[in-house]
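We modelled the chain as a single entity of 313 amino acids. Its sequence is:
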Amino acid sequence: MGLQVVIGYGPAGAATAALLAEQGERVRVIARSPRENEPGLEHVALDAADQAALVDATKGATAIYSCASPPYHRWATDWPPLQDSICAAAETHGALLASLGNLYGYGPVDGPLTENLPLAATGTKGRIRALLSGQLHAMHDEGRIRVVEVRASDFFGPGVTDGGHLAARVVPNVLRGQKVQVLGDPDAPHSWTYIPDVARTLVAAAREEKAWGQTWHVPTGPPRSARVMVALLCEASGVAPVAVQRLSPMLLNAGALVSPLLRELREVRYQFDLPFVLDSRAAQDFFDITPTREKDQAAATVAWWRDRPATVS
């Protein structure tokens, strides 16, 4: 496929870049933080919202994977110029753009989330996601760029830290045998998307021309409550089950006064107070991708955190 460019080196970008490199592709990673090159990966440090710099850094790209995301509380201001820059790079070089999205654009839905639902969110972050998705598909329909969009539910797995609801606030406590506090109802069914499955789907979608111009949900296992997921992590860790409690709304509101992240989480509380179920059957059938087994997800996640002793001491 020629040069593969991955924009963003968070959990999804890192997993996608690693998968491409494992498959023998020439991979360039573009992110803000400088990093040393490593086998199969060339790292370039720049602000991807700098359109001229990004266009120059993506010369020769045949596929661009958009895995970057601005700080949670700056989506409304930072996302539009970032996507404009990424689209300009894809259009300039004639590169396929595989864009990673999420489920916020649908807003609250009564029933499973499918790709054909309208993007009817009313919250700020949901409207931004709907706007970005609409722009991508409009540019594809106009023939300006070739686009495929892949949407995931809440990330789970190796590499997911502060931004995950089953990550920094959960796994270290599990490894210490301490209680866990979660956002929303700990017994509400919820879809958790495993990070390696995100990478597999992005790469498969970029390579399959018949998938372009469409939106796909990452193959994701059956919905599980936070309590069930914590129990799986306990089992994988070899520790006794720990208590799982709902984070007090009063504490959440108090924390929101000083934490931009907690302040923004109030908009998406509905995803954790009620069933939040992703239907990924279309992508599973089309790409022949089966979600990673739950026990394997939990085992790999625990192993990754155990390699970070400072976080669990």
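As a brief sanity check on the tokenised model: The radius of gyration is 19 Å. The chain has twelve helices and eleven strands.
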